[in-house]
Amino acid sequence: MTRMLYAVARFSVRRRFVVLALWLLAAIALVAISHRMGDNTNDNLSLPGTNSQQATNTLTSSFPGQANGASPIVLHARSGKLTDSNNANAVNQASSNLSKDPSVAGVVSPLTQQGASQLSQDQTTGYLNVTLKVSPGSLSQSDAQEIINKAAKPGQAAGLQVATGGQLGQKVSKPSTEQSELIGIIAAAIILTFTFGTVTAMLLPIVTAIFALLSTLAIIRMLGHVTSVPTVAPTLATMIGLGVGIDYALFIVTRHFRGLREGLPIEESIARAAATSGGAVFFAGCTVTIALVSLAVAGIPLVTTMGLMAAVSVVIAVLAALTLLPAELAILGPRIESLRVHKPATDEQIRKGLWAKWAREIARRPIVAGIAALAILIPLMIPLLSLQLGQQDTAALSKSTTARQAYDLISQNFGAGVNGPLLVAVKLGSPAQNGTQDPRLATLQKDVKGTSGVVAVSPAQVDQAGTTAYFNAISNAGPAEQATTNLVHTLRLSTIPTAQKGTNMQAYVGGTTAAYDDLASKISSKLPLQILVVIALSFLLLILAFRTVVVPPQAAVMNLLSIGASYGVLTAIFQYGWLHSLIGLPGKVPVVSYVPLFMFAVLFGLSMDYEVFLVSQIEEHVHEGQDNKTSVISGLVTSARVITSAALIMVFVFGSFLLNGDPTVKQFGVGLAIAVILDATVVRCLLVPALMVLMGKLNWFMPRWLDKIVPHMSIEGAEFFRERDVARAREAEPELVGAGTER
Hints:
- By secondary structure, the chain is an alpha+beta fold.
- It has three domains: 2-37 and 175-384 and 517-709, no CATH class; 68-171, Alpha-Beta Plaits; 402-516, Alpha-Beta Plaits, CATH 3.30.70.100.
- The protein is built from 26 helices and eleven strands.
- The chain has helices spanning 2-14, 16-37, 51-59, 64-67, 85-99, 141-157, 166-171, 178-196, 199-223, 233-261, 266-293, 301-332, 347-352, 354-364, 366-381, 402-414, 439-449, 482-500, 512-546, 551-575, 594-623, 628-655, 663-695, 704-709, 718-732, 734-742; strands at residues 70-77, 104-108, 125-132, 160-164, 389-390, 422-428, 454-457, 461-462, 468-475, 505-510, 591-592.
- Strands 6, 7, 8, 9 and 10 form a five-stranded antiparallel sheet that branches. Strands 2-3-1-4 form a four-stranded antiparallel sheet, sandwiched between helices.
- A hairpin with a 5-residue loop joins strand 8 and strand 9 (468-475).
- The longest helix is centred in the C-terminal third of the chain and has 35 residues, at 512-546.
- It is elongated, with a radius of gyration of 30 Å.
């Protein structure tokens, strides 16, 4: 691997302007093509084998509009009533406009007998119930806005307040991420300036990461036209791509500065940095990518695609670090030292600095250090014991979004449950008798309406064949509340089985609310398997990297501790509602079901990055002949400054997404930032060194039988360059080597 990376880096250095031009042209072409194609994200929940998916499948042929869900477009009269002549004309015009749209399957107006329940008691508020011929998730944001405008324009012209809920409203209520990206980049620039000591060097990781990010987002946008890409996927790819892109470049530039201090020629220093630290970058990128791709184990299309899109960002970041960055370093050459803000620390200053004192103190009292780390991590894990996975909560969106405005208007005038009706789909074994008056349907509706927590049911609808029917059940609680989740379980486990007992009828509970409940249940059941798969893969990678059976389980346990603590903090802040006002939320919100699953994959991969960087530095000193304790001290002193700088960048990049108005994005930002803080400080710079000091020589234990079958590999390839330097020395001074051999 080192030989290949060295060759790639040498090519990038020698053909620096060609490599830069290729990256520039590729980025411009990808961005231009993707913008021409447009956005096409899709939030459809396909959950094979679940009750909600069976409900969708039941209605697909007979009631495709209902199978795709309904979106309310709310119209509110600020003065007078909707039934007043001017307002009524606007409502009717909006309904007529919508019904002519080719994507709309049907519109029910609150001013018709069929939609009487959609008009509030004081007649000031009503909503058009819009069903689509296509899945709302498959519409682009502009397509959704075009449909909404057909109702909004006549309503607003009449002075009505118009707001759109459901999936149509959510499609156009996604906050932009530009502000978060900018803050993350500014914070990274400040950290890099102090880390490198020069403004010029600071620019390299930033530029490299931006190139990689632009290419990544363009690729994801294009992939959205051939597969279902969730709306949140580009935001997650931005968070991860920006963070790892800057960090990976940081590792390589740091190694380049080290090569320059050791007296290497500039081009050789660049190539060696890309081949040594670049090897660690390649290994770390593979670990994160494997962890993200392993999300496919859950068997949930939404989660699988999110993982794959994030993996794309990591792969592009690695490619940029190994090819574009060496070209940029070569173009700068000696000018990398320009615009210096402080002098770099000498080796002697580093050996006497704060990190050296910290490392020696840990080595002197490893048990105390380990207990102190656990005393921080274990209490933070306690809230995790009460974690309940939920669904996205529209009530927590910014009040400036149309989805939140629609949610509030419906809650105030019709009840919160109307925002997330439960769809009861019915498959009749024999055609219905007297249509909707079929005794089986009547009994089912009566039992559902009588279930505690149900405030109303809609009239049943039966297809022409009389074999498929549906009706809605309205909960007395909001869609994201635990009471609604409990109601879904009651209907499925008790009410419906009792009603259909002894009949040739099968009923399912579907709709968006029920689908997210199924998603949470499926993720809860798959999370242990996901954890085992990621740990097993990481275990194998670490054995290959360090040839020891002791470091891999240590790393797994350390990673689980930091991730568990971050889960606990996530639970406390969002589910308990602690500090909610500081992060821009009105109160407690449920932890979205796929957030912990995705977080685990990302964090385990990032934790392995820091583990590899730290342990590889310790191992390097072991190979130089230092004893275990001294190696741990030297390795921590060498790596701690870089690890903390990299972690700080990650924390600011992830934390900046707290400014995003989407509560789900906030959860990712908080969870990832907290986990990185804990992992880089408490775990890597306290717990891991303490444990490695206690383990002594056992750290490097490898059974002979396993040593024989495990292939040899070196992450940073120190052996390759030692052998290469010796061979060159012999070629340059054969007579001196010969004379030394004779003596």
